[in-house]
């Protein structure tokens, strides 16, 4: 009887050590759902969703503290992808947080630019190229149209440029589809 107690104690100790090691070795940092949600977001870090960036917004969605339709740069496609991932009913993009701005980019009037670099600092996706006291320009392929650079420009040299509609960037008006 005493031998059985010793054997079970030793086995319990060994199993406890193995489980302790496995908990340390295979520890998962963070919530994998947050990573999946964050991967679906456009990574513009624009703050239009009322969060400091895409990662905080993803965390809020995972906790149930935010709706899936607060990301204008992600558009309706982003909302639909989030709904599918989370297995919830899709919602229409909430225009309270802004409009889907994938139909334009910004450009800098180089004759007026003073090289203050405020636009470079405001841009969440590093779409601006320039340096202090040197003319700044926009890399159009990187610009997400979040327009965060426009209000910080002291000389109003940043303007909106509509993108030519192509099959690659066409976004139908969802209101027309719903009511049409």
UniProtKB/TrEMBL annotation:
Residues 1-23 are annotated as: Hydrophobic. Its cofactor is [4Fe-4S] cluster. Residues 29-88 form the 4Fe-4S domain. [4Fe-4S] cluster 1 binds at residues 46, 49, 54, 71. GO terms for cellular component: plasma membrane. Its EC number is 7.-.-.-. [4Fe-4S] cluster 3 binds at residues 123, 143, 146, 149. The keyword Electron transport applies. It is an enzyme of class 7 (translocase). It is found in: Cell inner membrane. Binds 3 [4Fe-4S] clusters. One of its GO terms (molecular function) is metal ion binding. Signal peptide: none annotated. [4Fe-4S] cluster 2 binds at residues 113, 116, 119, 153. GO terms for biological process: electron transport chain. Residues 104-133, 134-163 form the 4Fe-4S ferredoxin-type domain. PROSITE patterns: 4FE4S, 4FE4S_FER_1, 4FE4S_FER_2. Part of a membrane-bound complex that couples electron transfer with translocation of ions across the membrane. Belongs to the 4Fe4S bacterial-type ferredoxin family. RnfB subfamily. The complex is composed of six subunits: RnfA, RnfB, RnfC, RnfD, RnfE and RnfG. This is Ion-translocating oxidoreductase complex subunit B. It comes from Bathymodiolus azoricus thioautotrophic gill symbiont.
């Amino acid at each position: 009887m005493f031998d059985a107690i010793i054997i079970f104690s030793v086995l319990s100790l060994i199993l406890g050590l193995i489980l302790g090691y496995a908990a340390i070795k295979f520890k998962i940092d963070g919530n994998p759902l947050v990573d999946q949600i964050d991967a679906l977001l456009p990574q513009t870090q624009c703050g239009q969703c009322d969060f400091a960036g895409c990662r905080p917004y993803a965390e809020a969605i995972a906790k149930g503290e935010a709706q899936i339709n607060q990301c204008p740069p992600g558009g309706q496609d982003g909302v639909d992808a989030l709904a599918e991932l989370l297995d919830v009913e899709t919602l229409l993009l909430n225009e309270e947080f802004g409009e889907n701005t994938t139909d334009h980019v910004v450009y800098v009037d180089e004759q007026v630019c003073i090289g203050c670099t405020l636009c470079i600092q405001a841009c969440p996706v590093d779409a601006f190229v320039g340096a202090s006291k040197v003319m700044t320009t926009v890399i159009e392929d990187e610009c997400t149209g979040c327009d965060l650079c426009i209000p910080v420009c002291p000389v109003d040299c940043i303007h909106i440029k509509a993108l030519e509609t192509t099959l690659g960037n066409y976004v139908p008006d969802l209101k027309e589809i719903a009511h049409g």
